[in-house]
Amino acid sequence: MRDRDVERRMLDTTKALFSRIEKITTLMTRFRTERSLAKRREDSLKIVAEMTRFPLELATTDWNILFRATTPSSRRDRRHTTVLQLRMLVDEGIRMVNTIGVLDRPKSEIRQTMISLPQGKIEITVPKSKFLDRQEALSKIEELLSSRLHNDTLITTLRGIAESILQPNIILDEQRTQIAQQWNASRVPRTMGTVKENERIISRHERITPETKAKLESFQAAWQKQMGDTNVILEGVGRAGHVAVILFLFVIYLYLFRKKIFDDNSKLLLISILILFVSSLAYFSYMMKSSDPVEYLILVPTASMLLTVIFDSRVGYNITVVMALLAGAICGGNYSIIVASLVAGALGVYTVRDIKNRTQIFRSLAFIFLGYAVCITFFGLQRSEEISKIMMQLGYALGNSIISPVLTFGLLIFFEKFFGITTDLTLLELSDYTHPLLRELSTKAPGTFHHSINMASMAEAAAKEIGANPILARVGAYYHDIGKIVAPEFFVENQISQINRHDDLDPKESARIIIDHVREGVALGRKYGLPERILEFIPAHHGKTIVSYFYAREKEQARDVSKDEFRYPGPRPRSKETAIVMLADTIEAAARAIDEPTPEKIKQLIDSIVTKRLNEGELDEADITMQDLFKIKKSFLGILLGIHHNRIKYPSQEEEQKAKKLVEQTAKTFLFPNSADALIRRIKHLGKSEE
User: Fold this and answer.
1) In angstroms, rounded to a whole number, what is the distance separating the alpha carbons of residues 10 and 17?
2) pLDDT class for 686, splitting at 50, 70, 90?
3) pLDDT grade for 314, boundaries at 50, 70 and 90
4) Contact, 28 vs 45, CB < 8 A?
5) Model confidence over 269-281: pLDDT tens digits?
6) CA dihedral sign, ordered 67, 71, 73, 78
7) Which residues on adjacent β-strands are paired with residue 115?
8) In which element (H, E) is residue 126 found?
9) CB < 8 Å & 24+ apart, contacts of 489-497
C-alpha cells in the first residue's frame, strides 16, 4: 500500500532541520565577525547548545562544509548558496523519489515480480522494477544534487541529511498479502480432468501429447503419495545397496592386491575416514536440493592427493575411482559428477605422484580445475545448457580446486602425526644433508658419515632391484649409525691417528661402548623427532649379531665367556629395507678393509657375508626371498666396483703391472731409466702385431 502522509512528514522534517541549520550558520558567521570577546564567548556557547540539540549527528567537518557553502567570501560575492536553496534542493529530491515510490525493503527480498497497489475499491498491478528501494532512492537524490551543485563534499553532507529523512511510502501489508494468496490459491482448480480405473493412459510406440504427459505425471504423484514411507525406504535401500556393491569391490581389491594395507588397521581407518568424508559431502549436497551446483564441492581431489602422497599413485588412482562412483551413487546416479570427480581426482594424483616438497601440492590447483572445466564444458554443450549455468558450475569447481590443495596440505600434517605415517615426502625432507643430525654426524664422525653415504647408494640401488622402497632404504642408511656421534673416537672409521682407544680397555668394556651406539642412536633419533620407520633401522642394522672382534679377544683371556654380553640387543630386520641396510653396513665396511680389491675378492666377500647372515638367522624375520638376495648381491657388487674403481686391479692389469716391473728392472740395468716406458709400449705394439 502507498502511504500518502509520508511525503508531508518528510517535508516537515526537512523544514525543521534546515531552520536549525540556518540558525547555527548565522551564529557561526556572527562569531567570526564579532570583535567583542564577551559576545564571541556568548555566541560560542549558543553554537554548542544548538549543535547539541540538533536531531542529527553531524560531524564538525560537516558543519564547516555547510558554513563555507552558505557564507559569502565577501560582500560582493553573489555565487554562494543560501540555506533555503539547499533545503529546496533536498525537498525536490524527496518529492521525486516519493512520487516514484520507495519500497520498505530491498528488492532482493521480494520474490514476486509484480506488486499490487490498492486504489480505492480496485487494485492495480505494477512491476517491481518501477519502484525504488532505499539505496536506489538515495542514489537518485545524489544524482539530482550532483546535477545542481559542483561541490563533492557538500553533496556528500546533503546526501547524509537526506538519508536520515528518507522514509518508505510503499509498505507491504503482510495480512492483506496472505489473504490474497489464499484466495488466489482457492481459485486454482485441483484437477484438470479424471482418469478412470483400469483406463489405459498410453500404449507402446504411441506419441506422448501434453495431455498424456500430464496424466503420467499425475499417476506418478498419486503412486508416490500412496506408497508414502515405503517408497522412501525402498529408495534408501537401493542407494545403500549401490554403495555396498562399490565398497565390496574395493575391499576385494585391497585383499588381493594390497595385502599390507588390508592387514594394517591404522591404514584401513585412514582410508575409511577419507571415503566417509567424501561420501558425507556427497550426501549433504544431494539432500540440500539446492538449485546451485553444490555437487562440484565434493572434495574428491583432496582425498586423491592425500592417498597418493601417503601410499602411492596406484592406490590414489584406484581409490579415486571408488570415491567418484560413490559420489555419483549417493547423488542419485549422477553420471556427470562421476566423470568430473574421476578426471579431477586423477589429475590431482598425477600432480603429486613424484612430489619433492610440500609446496608442490599447490601446483595441482590448475590441473584440478582443468579437469573439472573440460568435463563441465563438454557436458554443458551436450545438454544444451545455458552459458550462465555452465559458468556457475565452473565457479563452484574453481572453489573446489582452491580448497583441495589447501586442505590436502593441512590434513597431510595431521595424518602423519595422528597415524604415525612416514610418507616419501617426509623421507625426502630427511634426506637433506642440512638436517641437524646429519650435519652433526658429518662434523663429529666424518668417517661414519662417509660410510653412511656409501651405504645409502648401495641400499637404494638394491631396494630398486627387489621392489622395496628405495627412498626409505636410503634415508635409513643415512641415520643408522647416528649413535656414533656420542663417542666417535671409539669407532675405527673415525680414528685418524694410529692410536686405538680400545687398546687400553677390557674387551667387555669395549663391546659395551660399541653396542651402546645403538641405544644412543635411538635416543638421539627420538630427541630430533625422527619417525618410527627410520628409528627401526638403528637397532635392526646389527640385529642380534655378536661383536666378534672383542668376543674373540675375551675368549683368549678367559675360558667361560657368555655370548650374550657381546650380542647386540636387536631386533632383527623385519622389512626388506632394514635387511638391505644390515647387509650393506657389513659389506661396505668389510670392502674398505680389503688391501688390494679385485672384482673376484669383492664378489667373494659379498657372498660370504650374505651366507653368514642367513646361517645366523638374522634375515629370518624379514620378508625377503633367495631371489631377492641374488639381486641384492648383484646390485652391491656393481656399486662397490664403482666406489673402489681406482683401487681395483683386474687380472689383465695385474699381469701388466708385473711385466712393467720386470721391464723397468731390465731397463735400469741395461739401458737408462727413462726408457722403460718406451720399451713397454714397444712390447705392447709387437704383441698386437703378432695377433
Assistant:
1) 11
2) very low
3) very high
4) no
5) 999 999 999 999 9
6) positive
7) 126
8) strand 122-127
9) 490/514, 491/445, 491/447, 491/448, 491/517, 492/447, 493/445, 493/447, 493/448, 493/450, 493/451, 493/589, 493/592, 494/445, 494/446, 494/447, 494/448, 495/447
Rounded to the nearest 10°, the torsion over CA 363, 364, 365, 366 is 80
Cell of 473: 632404504
Supply the DSSP string of 13-58, one letter for each residue: HHHHHHHHHHHHHHHHHHHHH---HHHHHHHHHHHHHHHHH-SS--
Taking residue 506's Cβ as centre, other Cβ atoms within 10 Å add up to 13
Which helix (DSSP H) or strand (DSSP E) does residue 148 occupy? helix 134-148
Angle, helices 229-257 vs 210-227, to 10°: value is: 80
C-alpha cell at 592: 674398505
**What is the number of other CB atoms lying within 10 angstroms of the CB of residue 218?**
15
* 272-307 pLDDT tens trace: 999 999 999 999 999 888 889 999 999 999 999 999
HSE toward the beta carbon, residue 508, CA cutoff 13 A: 8
> What domains does the chain contain, in order, with CATH numbers?
6-174 (no CATH), 237-421 (1.10.1760), 426-640 (1.10.3210), 651-690 (no CATH)
The length of the chain in residues reads 691
Predicted pLDDT at 176: 67
Written as nine digits, the cell of 462 is 638394491
Helix (H) or strand (E) holding 117, with range, is strand 114-119
The amino acid at 296 = Y
DSSP string, 80-105: S--HHHHHHHHHHHHHHHHHH-BBSS
434 burial level (CB within 10 Å; 0-12, 13-18, 19+): exposed
CA distances from 223 to 199, 211, 227, 239, 628 (A): 15, 18, 6, 20, 67
Residue 691 pLDDT exceeds 50? no
* pLDDT at residue number 272: 95
Q: Which of 542, 540, 537 is nearest to 480 (CA)?
A: 537
CB 431 within 8 A of CB 471: yes
| Average pLDDT value for residue range 241-262 | 93
> How high is the pLDDT of residue 327?
94
Q: Give the residue among 14, 167, 6, 13 at the shortest CA–CA distance from 88.
A: 14
Question: What is the Cα–Cα distance from 449 to 478, expressed in whole angstroms?
Answer: 8
pLDDT at 650 over 70: no
The Cα–Cα gap between 396 and 404 comes to 12
Q: 539: closest CA among 493, 572, 564, 565?
A: 572
Residues facing residue 126 across a β-bridge: 115
Cα of 143 vs its chain's centroid, Å: 49
Tell me the pTM: 0.59
**Is residue 377 exposed (0-12), middle (13-18) or buried (19+ Cβ within 10 Å)?**
middle
Beta bridge partners of 123: 118
Q: Any idea what DSSP says for residue 207?
A: P
| Rounded Cα–Cα distance for residues 303 and 271 (Å) | 9
Distance, CA of 479 to CA of 332 (rounded, Å): 53
What is the structure's pLDDT at 189? Answer: 60
Number of Cβ atoms within 10 Å of the Cβ of 629: 20
| Rounded Cα distance, 605 and 622, in Å | 22
What pLDDT score was predicted for residue 440?
Answer: 95
457 contacts 516 by C-beta, under 8 angstroms? no
Task: Reply yes or no on whether the pLDDT at 652 is more than 60.
Answer: no
Beta bridge partners of 170: 2, 103
Q: Which residue has the cell 625426502?
A: 428
Nearest to 484 by CA among 511, 524, 455: 524
